[in-house]
Amino acid sequence: MINLAIVGYGKMGKMIESLAHKNEFNITGKYDVINPVNKHLKSNTDVAIEFSTPDSVIENIEFLSSKGINIVCGTTGWYHKADQIKNIIDKFGNGFIYASNFSVGVNIFFQIAKYSAGIINKYSQYNAEITETHHTQKLDKPSGTAIRIAEYIVENVNRKNKIVSDSDTPEVNELNIISKRIKNVVGTHEIKFSSNADEISLRHKANSRRGFAEGALVAAKFIFGKKGFYKFEDIFNEL
Q1: Confidence bin at 103 (pLDDT 50/70/90)
Q2: Residue limits of CATH 3.40.50.720 in the chain
Q3: Helix (H, G, I), strand (E, B) or coil at 177
Q4: pLDDT for 139
């Protein structure tokens, strides 16, 4: 039995709670801006699933780590401070796993993106572009998932070496991410490889938050009792 705290009790937090099987997880606390974890943490928590905001995530990670609690982090928008997070985890010796997206389908999509980029690399007539569409409440832009897809493409397409966002006139070497915010959209990511002759489109559309929540709970079971800094997609295949 894993004693589980939910840090960020919005739509994702409520979905995680609904899917956490009673014979596997004991929910020890549910925290949000009204009931902040750093003031109301209950004892006997093994793992915290953190889905908060880019403004509060580092403070939450440092507090939870100081209490010896392992962390599943689904908040995005902090990756430019990854070294700071690694230092926190090294300092307190707890376990930490994060993902731009915990969805099984999205992690399959990552592998498809990587593979297809390797093929497109051989055909210089094709340009690449990413479009991501999310709900209007999403704070970071572009999405962490879109950035990770872009990284896979840049790593595997030699003529692309820079990621830009919402550029009207991207250079040939730039991979452009177009971000859209529309009411009631869970999340859609599309890769377009286009030439003068045709267009190849790869698309992942989330129908609900269920896939994200299921993946986060898988990550919670993985990180339980472990130490160190992990990325979900790196251990996805073994899971």
Answers
A1: very high
A2: 2-98+210-235
A3: strand
A4: 77
Q: Is 22 a catalytic residue?
A: no
- Residue of 134, 160, 189, 204 with catalytic role: 134
**Mean pLDDT taken over the chain:** 95
Q: How many C-beta atoms surround the C-beta of residue 80 within 10 A?
A: 7
Q: Report whether CATH 3.40.50.720 matches the domain 2-98+210-235.
A: yes
pLDDT at residue 209, as a whole number = 87
> Pick the catalytic residue: 138, 160, 189, 204?
138
Asked if 238 and 232 count as a contact pair (C-beta separation under 8 A), the reply is no
Checking if the pLDDT of 196 tops 90, the result is yes
Compute the distance between CA of residue 210 and CA of residue 98 in angstroms, rounded to an integer. Answer: 17
Task: Please list the alpha-helical segments (H only) found in 67-165.
Answer: 82-92, 104-120, 144-156
Rounded to 10 degrees, what is the CA torsion of 110, 167, 53, 57?
70
| Angstrom distance (rounded) from CA 134 to CA 59 | 26
Is 71 in contact with 226 (CB distance < 8 Å)? no
CATH topology of domain 104-206: Dihydrodipicolinate Reductase; domain 2 (3.30.360)
Least confident of 54-58, 94-98, 234-238: 234-238
39 in active site: no
Strand partners, 163: 175
